[in-house]
Amino acid sequence: MTLKKFIIAAGLILAVAAAAFGEEPKSAPAAVGTASAVTAPATSAVTAVVAPGDNTPAPTAAPAPAEKKIVTLKANKAITLSMFAVIIGITMAVVVWAARQTKSAADFYAAGGGITGTQNGWAIAGDYMSAASFLGISGLISLYGYDGFMYSVGWLVAYITVLLIVAEPCRNAGKYTLGDILSFRTNPKPVRALAAVSTVAVSTFYLTAQMVGAGKLMALLVGVPYKTAIVGVGILMVGYVVFGGMTATTWVQIIKAGLLMSGALLLSFLVMAKAGFNPVRFFEQIVNNPDIQDHVSKLVLKDGITLNGIDAGQRFLEPGLYLKSPLDQISLGMALVLGTAGMPHILMRFFTVPTAQAARKSVIIAMFIIGAFYVLTTLLGFGAAINLTPQGIISVDPGGNMATLILAQTLGAEIAPILGDIFLAFLCSVAFATILAVVSGLVLAASAAIAHDIYVNVIKDGHADQHEQVMAARITSLVVGAVGIMIGLLAEKANVAHLVALAFAVASSGNLPVVVLSLFWRKFNTAGVISGLVVGTIASIGLVMVSPNMTYPKTVAAGAKKIVAAMEKKQAELPSGQSLSEKDAAALATAKVNEQLTGTSMMGLEKPLFTLKNPGIVSIPLGFLAAIIGCLLFPNKRSEEMFDEVYVRQNTGIGMAKAIDH
Amino acid sequence: MAEKQYDWAAIAKNPKFIELHHKKRAFLFGWWIFSTAYYFMLPIGAAYAPGLFKIKVLGVINFGYMFALSQFFVSWALALYYAHVANKDFDRMTKELITELHL
Question: Where are the domains of chain B?
């Protein structure tokens, strides 16, 4: 049973690695609320560092009008749990149906190639839009305005790369996994093994972020303990994948995308109804809102700028309140634009459709769904800022992740109190379905890499009958799922926000260069794949570990010093006898505590060696360079001779039937 | 499973294939570069041309907002244009090639 031992060993290594990544201690006062570090993608750690002063429970600012609604979030447990039960019931029915159809390896990994373009488009959208997109981005918009919207753009533009460069060639040249594409004209064993390691690494980073987010979210929404939530989500995810394989995963993703879009549309409708369906008036409401103005004044004050009234309101619609490092932005943009096309769970979706035409259609449909969702997100984010006030949103969650949910409850309750509960419960179950759909896709991608690449093709030399292949796939999914649950449990207190950025960095620096060069460059060979994957992956992970994503106590202290200075200046400017508002005084007190922090980061550093949060701008060129140099140093005639085959296949789909029923 | 054998090198030299791959390569990489450049103008512009982004275009709605919104429409338009060209030209040329090769 070498396979079992191997899987267990690999699982343990990953668990330890992920836990080590997570072990990063959070400096208590700077890390405002754990939930903020979890659901918001990539950059949410910034919130914790940039805005420690906003962590005060008082939702109202001193000059604001007297009557203020207190913003709270309380889900009706009975309604929410029954909606969860409905979703579990429907998805379980899908699994039972899918399990009957899953007989061969092609059924398990690629739904037998029987998914239509339209279905796959919805499934891609469902696979891609995580709780971070759903809750995190609207939260960013509700707190930082324009920057949140700008942040969302890259997530859609990324699909142009998928559409033009990878979708159809992968459909034509691949079978189930990244390893299939890369091993076509290279020495298959080392390449498959490495591709599998890379796939498992990317999926594990992403999965850890999702699992921890899921646990925190469920704990917050319905009051289930964190550990129970992780185990519950984990069991469902394992159930979908082990029994229903790709067919069940696809339908869970389609259902989720449908629910998500209905929720977003309905809530946007309510938001726009309040502005009389007039976009100009909607934006005027933002600019003229005294609470938003006050919030922006505070934000820019940290940079030493004084802005008040309508100017502060207008500033909310301008860039620079949240994303302050242009180079980091560009770096993140590169990771998104190139990384999405290198994500194993996204690549895998193209093997489920029968033809390149269907693959093309599915990306285009996915682009319309994803794009429409992000446009609606703007309305939700700004709508939350107008109707709930940024201060109110912060009082519930400093990262803003709850903005959409509170908005649903508030706007629903304005029609009828019970409707608020129902609407909130509906959105909670959308978040629940979102988590399930994304984690299932990740588990499936990781298991496919281990079972198909490592077990069937490396250990068994490709000699495994259908029954054995499906068994291997099921056992691996079970193990991967169990490891996922374990990591989720271990990483409860960990800072996981940077793991999504890390997954995209590895996908864009390790996977994408070798995929593109395999498909388009005649000279590309085994040495190139290996050096590209190794250098790209190690560079991304290494740079993130010495980046500002880690917590540096002394940097936190330095930031706090600035706030102290700003607040003291503000106090000095006040007419004598007057003191700072309650909120400012609290911010000053917090900053004074943080000022005293000292120590080093997990890597033993006092300050980041690499100043960007997103390593893409360095690691992507490194990945490409390493792949090219490695391949030029060790030329291989056979790889060059086989290029004609790869190139004709990927362009025309000739010989593809072989790839499907192999 | 019986696998059909193909003479890949011969197909790769077929004039129809060469025409197809030249056309595809120019279209795909050309438009990819365009869309990427258009996208990076957003973070670069936001950082280095804040004055431009502040200009009010419609009521209080500024250029920056319209430009970010335009990214979505440009991406969608490009996707639809690609689908149009691929369905009309690339698929037809591939079909002709396959017919000619009697596959």
Answer: 11-100
